[in-house]
Here is the input.
Amino acid sequence: MEDTKMENFSRNKEEYQPKMLVFACNWCSYAGADMAGVSRLQMPPNCRVVRVMCSARVGPEMVLSALFKGMDAVLVLGCHPGDCHYSEGNYYTRRRALVLEKMLDLLGIAKERFQVRWVSAAEGERFARTIREVVDQVTSLGPNPIDTSLESLDRKWQKSENSKSEARNSKQIQMTKIKNSKQKTK
Ligand code: FES
Here is the structure.
């Protein structure tokens, strides 16, 4: 399946549209998204914006879950350092992101698939530019390999089950042959 996905990607590179989930904090980045909308700035249509009260609300399990469920990238947007409505939320986000990046690296996920950026309420242009940049980076990477690795795990499991049942069958055949030859010799 992974090969098919990558084959389709290389065949239809022009048409490939990555799916991106954007978590935007209520007090700055979500307002920045509004500003981009009101200013009618051009943005790729392939992202879904989820409003959270603070970027620190986005736990690693939310990022991993989105990636495991087929999102090609997750972008977390928060207030600029020092501007968090809850004083230190974005500092936690930044530290957590460093750990999560290492975890994704171990899983073989490109670091471009998870990014944290700062966008204030007045920065509609910056919001649109960030979305365009990340979408461009992810488009060049191609489809997210995580869900395909799950499928490949499934395939491996199926393959091992098949070989186990083949081994059982051949053992049974051998036993029957031995039994039959013993009966003949009697
Ligand atoms: S409120 Fe925006 S990052 Fe915390």
Q: What stands out?
A: The mean pLDDT is 89. Residues 25, 27-28, 54-56, 78-79, 84-86, 89-90 surround FE2/S2 (inorganic) cluster (CB under 6 Å). The two ends are 54 Å apart (CA to CA).
